[in-house]
Write the structure tokens for this entry.
Amino acid sequence: MEQNLAVGLDLGTTKIVAMIGRKNEYGKVEILGIGKSKSLGIHRGVVNNITQTIQSIQLAVQEAEAAAATKIEGVTVGIAGQHIRSLQHSDYITRADSETVIDEDDIERLINQVHKLVMLPGEEIIHVLPQEYKVDGQAEIKEPIGMYGGRLEANFHVVVGQVSSIRNIGRCVKSAGLELEGITLEPLASANAVLSQEEKEAGVALIDIGGGTTDLAIFRDGIIRHTAVIPFGGNVITEDIKEGCSIIEKQAELLKIKFGSAWPGENKDNEIVSIPGLRGREPKEITLKNLSKIIHARVVEIVEQVYVEIKNYGHEEQKKKLIAGIVLTGGGAQLKHLKQLVEYITGMDTRVGYPNEHLAGDSDDAITSPLFATAVGLVMDGLKRQDRVKAEEIIEEVIENEIEEVVEEEIVEPVVKPKRSFLDALTERVKDFLDNAE
């Protein structure tokens, strides 16, 4: 695989997507190949059949390799699922010497302290995301590095997940003959692909409606404030259509995509769809009004659950108001009249998010569909990780050269190393576990 390529692997409940991309000369992401396979062995974001998941990953990867005419070695994988939860936590450290300025090490020490939080059995901290800092009681500090102070305090957004679920994903990736380069929380990947910096500053809720789960990520002042995973997605809507109309799942899915609407008032009573009967049976006639009533009932339930999470974050307080409203993405966002329904229930401005913010201008329309938001975000994450690794290598080279050339009178400027994210550390732990397990 070429050095400057990155591969995103989105393990969804309905589909697995492998996407190969690279940066072009304008810094935009160019998608070279995409592979899709039916997701077997994953339920609501959690692996429940290792063998089937491995086969599905291999199919998607082979298709992407054929499209891009290159070999895939390492991938950035997204994690989601109902086992993901988040909590707010405050912590502080007392510095030994308040006469020196706060540096990276102090922040690292504070973050490491949060990592020692006692979790429920089988859970592990995935992300520790600092919100605001306080230095000696002075609040609302975004960047404390370089300030004087004895007590450094911070509010954290802590994302927690099930260790076994994360390790199972690692196992599937490794068994499919791929290297696990990075792990990213799927709502964060989708957010990077479809949100603009202005929206993140103003305050925005990203709702990613997948097949098995609906992911929520709330940003304000450019910082992630809240994440949640609701264990319902497009599949429960299909299930309801199947039960309500007494048809098979494949027909229910097609009906939802072609004729489905989240707003029942749109359809007239005489609009009817005829569904072929099974094995010589009579065809079934279904009114579109009934179809949208079934869809509407379930979508309202999903949106209301998401809105409860938005209210839990504190959207109704003036200081926490989400000015940029809601952005819908994921396969479920393509449902007709969903935007209007979400605006009606929440009273918030809503738009459908397409992952074309960072893509090269000549990208295929199919790729800029909300369906691929997470995969595009994972590719972007992989490219960012590569840039970090390159920067570290350059810095190490510079340090080595300076040490060789240093003369006694010269003072060597300290070089700041790029920070490794905690997801990189988590990836390392999963890799070590898989290596030792064999």
Remarks:
- The chain has a mean pLDDT of 87.
- The CA atoms of residues 25 and 360 lie 10 Å apart.
